[in-house]
Amino acid sequence: MSVHIDFETPADVQDMVYEFVKKIDKEGGSHFKKGMNEVIKVCERGDAKLVIMAENVNPGEMMMPIPMICKERGIPYIYVKDQSYLGEAAGLPVGRPTSAIAVIEMDGAADEFKAVVASANELAGN
After folding, report:
1. What is the distance between the alpha carbons of residues 26 and 99, in angstroms, rounded to a whole number?
2. Tens-place pLDDT, residues 64-113
């Protein structure tokens, strides 16, 4: 397990997270920020509602600030296995991975958002 990972996310929960990301991407608009630097910025501003991080980021040390900031700000976060699939779910071109996304709006996906946040909080022990 990489240094930035605080807990394991079961495969069924990861599938739910990917589907949630796909759904809010289809809604259009700027519902999330992609990439480590953008995620850190919106988390520090307090604009992030949820952070999703890929486990297979190399080196994992780059991602270490994100969980710490999320804990400080009370932002729920969760992990998925693959940054390529996370990028694809977030609407990036095939082959363009993303290490993390921060959800800032979830129009039309409030129920899915609540389910993902509940899973994230349970897995984190909150």
Report:
1. 20
2. 999 999 999 999 999 999 999 999 998 888 889 999 999 998 777 889 99
pTM above 0.85, yes or no: yes
Q: Is domain 11-124 given the CATH code 3.40.50.1370 in the classification?
A: no
Q: Taking Cα atoms as reference points, which of 108, 86, 106 lies closest to residue 96?
A: 86
Instruction: Report the candidate in 28, 51, 26 with the shortest Cα–Cα distance to residue 38.
Output: 51
Q: Which residues, 6+ apart, have CB-to-CB distance to 3 below 8 Å?
A: 60, 61, 64
Domain boundaries, the chain: 11-124
* Amino acid sitting at position 12: D
Pairing assessment for the beta strands 77-80 and 50-54 based on DSSP bridges: parallel
Q: How far apart are the first and last CA of the chain?
A: 21
